[in-house]
Specification:
With 130 residues, the protein is α+β, with helices and mostly antiparallel strands. It has five helices and seven strands, in the order βααβββββαβαα. It has one domain: Structural Genomics Hypothetical 15.5 Kd Protein In mrcA-pckA Intergenic Region, Chain A (Roll), CATH 3.10.290.
Length: 130
């Protein structure tokens, strides 16, 4: 048994709509067996997919086929993510967390006078060096 890649990605909840699946496939964000494909490519159990979504990268093996979009619990049973993929996504998540922790947020919002100073500074900076 086989089914279209775009339908499977939608049913496995990697994308919210089939149109987003189609755009990702056409944009080269989805690889089946290490090769870019078309939305109508037939997918079979055991195929390896590499999915790039924003900064996340998934490497998964297809475990089951379903043409219906069900609950997230049932969607997870359709695939198995590789250990390397899990480790890479966890490292990226940790890196983002550390980066966010290092950024100092101001204690309060700028006052009207401070905002005007900021705007003047940015306008002067945008003009460039004289």
């Amino acid at each position: 048994m086989a089914m279209r890649v775009d339908v499977w990605l939608w049913a496995a909840r990697f994308f919210k709509t089939r149109n987003l699946c189609r755009q990702a496939i056409i944009g080269g964000k989805i690889e089946v067996g290490g090769v870019c494909c078309k939305p109508a490519r037939m997918l079979r159990v055991g195929d390896m997919l590499r999915i790039t979504r924003a900064e996340e990268r998934f490497e998964i093996e297809v475990q089951g086929l379903s043409g219906r979009r069900g609950a997230a619990n049932s969607a997870v049973t359709l695939y198995r993510e590789t250990e390397a993929s899990l480790a890479g996504r966890e490292a990226l998540r940790e890196q983002k967390r550390l980066l966010a922790a290092s950024v100092q947020m101001p204690a309060r919002r700028p006052s009207k006078q401070e905002r005007r100073k900021i705007h003047r500074f940015k306008q002067n900076d945008a003009a460039g060096p004289l």
